Amino acid sequence: MPVIVQDALPAIELLRKENIFVMGSTRAHFQDIRPLRIALLNLMPMKILTETDLVRVLSNSPIQVELDLIRITDRVSKNTSIEHLERFYLDFESVRNRNYDGLIVTGAPVEQFAFEEVTYWPEMVRILDWARTHVTSSIFICWSAQAALYHYYGIPKYLLAKKKFGIFEHDVKDPFNPLFRGSDDSFFAPHSRYTEVRREDIDLVKELTLLSESKEAGVYALQARNGREVFVTGHSEYAPDALDKEFKRDVAKGLPIDLPYNYYRINAPGQYPLVSWSAHANLLFTNWLNYYVYQETPFDIEKIA
Q: Could you confirm whether 191 is annotated as catalytic?
C-alpha cells in the first residue's frame, strides 16, 4: 500500500523513480479506506533526504499510511528552505490536540550536547509527554532514542572516543518478538553517532526490554510498554549513499572522521557501497506498523489513550 503525502512533496518523484508507490493526498481523498495516521517529527538538518528515506521504508507495508510532517518550532533550519517547511510541515502546536496511530522521531546532530543544553529540549520534552497520551506506538531513532530513554527512564548517554560510523552486524535477542519476526539471527544496520547508551544501565530498568545489540556498536533496539515505545540507536532507514555523503561532508569541514566501517565495496571513498541493511530496514518498519500500530490502534482514532 502507498504512503499518502501532500501532492507536491519532493519525495514523491524521487521514490517513483525507484518504482515505490507513493500516493498524493488528492487521489487518496477518493479512497474509502481508514489509513494509519503517522506523524514524523523530523529533526534532521537535510529534511528532504530524511523524508524520502522514511517514506521509502514505510511504503513496503501492505497498510496504507497517511503521513504528517512535523517540525520543531524553536529552531530555524539552515539546510531546508523556509518555503518547503511552510508548505509541507506542521508545527507541534497545530497538532497537539490530534491523536496519531504512530509517531516516528528522527535523529538530530546535537548528541554531543547535554540534553538540557539543546535549544529545543523544552519543546522536545512536551512532545515526548504528549506522545504517551496521543499516540499508539512511537519509534525513536538515534539521538531521539537516547533522548526518549533519558526523559522516560533516566538512561544516560556516554561520549564515545570517536564517531561510531559504518555498517555493523547485530544479533537478535528474541526472535519471537514481533519487531523482529521473520528476521535472521543476525543482520546489518548503519550507525552514525558520537554517543551511546549502555546495556548495564538498561538492565537496571525493568520496564525496558533489550531486543538487539552488536558486539561492535553496542545496544541497537529496545522496547517498553509492550511496544508502545520502540528505541533504535542506528539508522536502518538510511539510503545507500547516505554514509558516503556524510563522510565527504565531514572531510570538507575538516572534522576527524574514519572511512565508514564495512561500507564501501572497495575500502575507498567514492566507491558505491555494498548495501547489506535494506532488507532489515524494511522488515523493521513493516513489523512496527503491523504489530505495534495497526494491530493495537483503535479504529476510532479519538479513542487512543
A: no
